[in-house]
Amino acid sequence: MPASIFYDPRMNVTGLSSLSPSASKPAALMALLKERNRYDVVHGVYPVAPVTIGQLKLVHDTDYVDGVFAGRILNGFECIDSRVPEACLWTVGSLVGAVRHAAEHPVHPTLSPSSGFHHAHFGEGGGFCTFNGLAVAAALYLQDHPDHRVGILDCDVHYGDGTADILRRLPFLADRVVHHTSGRYFHEDAERLEFFAWLQQSIAAINEADCDVVIYQAGADMHKDDPLGGFLDDDDMALRDRMVFRGIRAGIAWNLAGGYRTLAGDCTPVLNTHHRTYGEANASVAQREQLRSST
User: How many CB atoms within 10 Å of residue 168?
Assistant: First the structure.
C-alpha cells in the first residue's frame, strides 16, 4: 500500500535565485517518487486544502503576515516575490492535512513534501522560511482537539529558533506542544553518538508525554556532505529515520525540511536522502503496528 502524501503543484515556486532548492523541491521529489516507486497517483496522493491568511495569523504577527503578502516585508527567501507567500498557503496546508491524517491513521507515517518552516518567528522570516507551518499545523490540530498533545521532533541540522520563539510567545501552544530540536545542540562538528543518545531520549520524552500526533522534520541537511552543516553519513541518516519511525508510538506526519547539496544546480543528492527517508517510513509499518498494539 503506498504511503499517504499530501501534495498540490501549487506548493512549488520555480526560478528563485537561492542557495536553497526548497521552493521547487515538492514537485522534484514527487517526480522522483513516481519514477522509482510507481505509486498509484490516484490513491496514494491526497488533495491539499490551502490555509488562509487568517490561519497564519494564529501564530504570526498580523502586520508581518500582511506585509509579506503586500510585498512590504521580505519573505524568508529575502525577496518580495509574491509567489512565495502564495505557495506557503499550500505548503502549510499540506502539513496541516498530513497532521490530521496521521492522527487518524497512526500506523503508516504520512508525508508532506514541504520545507521552509522552522526559522519563521512570530514576527519575521528568514533562513528560507516565511511562515512556520509546524506551529500553524499544531495550532489548527489543537483547535479541534484541545485536550491533545502535539510533538515536534525537528531533526534539521539547524536550530528551530522560529518554532521556539512562537512557543515562548503563545502559552496556549506551549502548554500542548512538546518541542525537541536537534539543531539547538548539534552542528557540523557534532559527535554522532551524542546525537543518537539525544534522539533516543527525545523519542522517549515524546512517548512519555503521550503525544497524539508528532511532526517529524527529517532534514536532509544533517548529511555530512551538506554545505550548510551536517555530520551523519548515509547509514547514520537511515538509522536516524528508523529510530524515529519505529520508536514513536503516535501517528507521524513528516516533512522534508532543509537540504542544500546540489550538483551544477541539480538537487538529486538531496532528493536521494529524502527518498531514503520515504523508504524507512514505509518499512516501519509492521514494527509500528507491534509498537502500538503493545501499549
Answer: 12
Task: List strands edge to edge, sheet with 213-217.
Answer: 45-46, 5-6, 110-112, 251-255, 213-217, 150-154, 177-181
Length of the chain: 295
Q: b/e string for 16-25 if b means 16 or more Cβ within 10 A?
A: bebebbbbbb
What is this structure's pTM? 0.96
3-state SS class at 276: helix
Distance of CA 46 to the CA centre of its chain: 17
Give the burial string for 259-279 (b: 16+ CB within 10 Å, else e): bbbeeeeebebbbbbbbbbbe
Q: Please identify which residue in the block is written with the cell numbers 533562513.
A: 127
> Which residue's C-alpha cell is 525537541?
180
pLDDT digits (tens, 9 = 90+) for 88-139: 999 999 999 999 999 999 999 999 999 999 999 999 999 999 999 999 999 9
Q: Are strands 45-46 and 110-112 parallel, antiparallel or unpaired?
A: unpaired
Q: Which amino acid is at 134?
A: L
